[in-house]
Design a protein that fits this description.
heterodimer; A: alpha/beta; Rossmann fold; globular; B: alpha/beta; eight-stranded parallel barrel; 11 strands
Amino acid sequence: MTRPAPEIVVVDYGMGNLRNVGRALERAGARPRVTQDPERVLRADRLVVPGVGALGNAMRCLDQQGLSSALRERVGDGRPYLGICVGLQVLLEQGEEGPVRGLGLIPGQVNRFPESLGLPVPHMGWNGVKPLRPHPVLADGFFYFVHAYRPVGVPEERVLARTDYGEQFPSALGFDACVAVQFHPEKSQRAGLALLERFCAWSP
Amino acid sequence: MLTKRIIPCLDVKDGRVVKGVKFVGLRDAGDPVEVAEAYDSQDADELCFLDITASHERRGTMLDLVARVADRITIPFSVGGGVRSVEDVRALLQAGADKVSLNTAAVERPELVAQVADRLGSANLIVAIDARRRDPEDPGQGWEVFTHGGRNPAGLDALEWALRMEREGAGEILLTSMDRDGTLDGYDLPLTRAASDLLRIPVIASGGVGSIEHLRQGLDDGPLGGGASAALAASIFHFGTHTVSEAKRHLAQWGVWVRPVDKLA
């Protein structure tokens, strides 16, 4: 008998391309269940928070739907969490644009790539991701990015991987059973699919 | 370091691929989904769909196509052609497109670009510009913007227009040389270079690719190259002259920083 596909709760707070994340999770062998309900978020054994767009909008939507307090309680309770793009940024303390307060689960800010780097912003396309130490979900490879803001001031023990864009910015953060990536595994072909498969199989 | 992107572009009419895709191994070369999957398996970095349907039926057909493509491919893709409003953009993104491009509608209503950027974000928004040299022999005379699939002059300078679109909130500029489109003579490198130097947002070079060397020229950051972030091409891939994987292997050997291809692709 084959193992039943793991159920993954995907949080819908009006900011993500949920269909694409859902499709990618199905390809990875999971059963995605989309929800806006804070109770289901608290119960979720495996949780994914996707998202595109600005941190300020994301936090407003999470607050309005009562999801902020659910996430504060659920992320870091020992069960797997995967944040994607804005789903990473919401974990930090503060965003430069606004400024806006994040969930504060990881110390650090979300600031725009400075003009002084002399590189196009947004950072858009495929870039290398280098894990700083072995991690059950992350792997060395090329992933698809699209973002103008990136984490800064994050303590080194919370940085899981870095990417070179004029500076070595943190492209994956986390602790315990929480992993959050600035890139889009759902758009990153085989490398992205493999990451999602590892997340689905992760038993921290 | 960020890699340079290779983007095959598909023209679609009434939900079918036109300008004949001829590379081998396809059951139905007119099916956009099948062609898209083939380019995904060749390790294209992104795909671009351009809807050239003239009728009013286009919207439903395109939404259906976008949903079917999104179900099957694992790389980002953009959709353009006949996008008129914030609601059009939203519907295409919700159907599964990663980016939407505006062209004629942006010229007719420049405020549309800021509206889309405010409500849906810049990252999803490409402004496509069709540019033609004022003097075919002298790039020093500049380039003029054309709309309606390259038929109507807009009375705008292409570089000034690109800069304005960046300020309004475009996330990327897809810059097509009308002089070179379909010629296989290579990109209009002075045009690509001028835009890449001027803008802070990524520039996608388009129009004229007939060889892998042309892709290299468009992406080359050196003084003679276009300096683009991404290279769009149609014929050389559609006609099976080269697979995307072959092109990327050559580019890598020539020192262009591209995403490595899978050994089997």
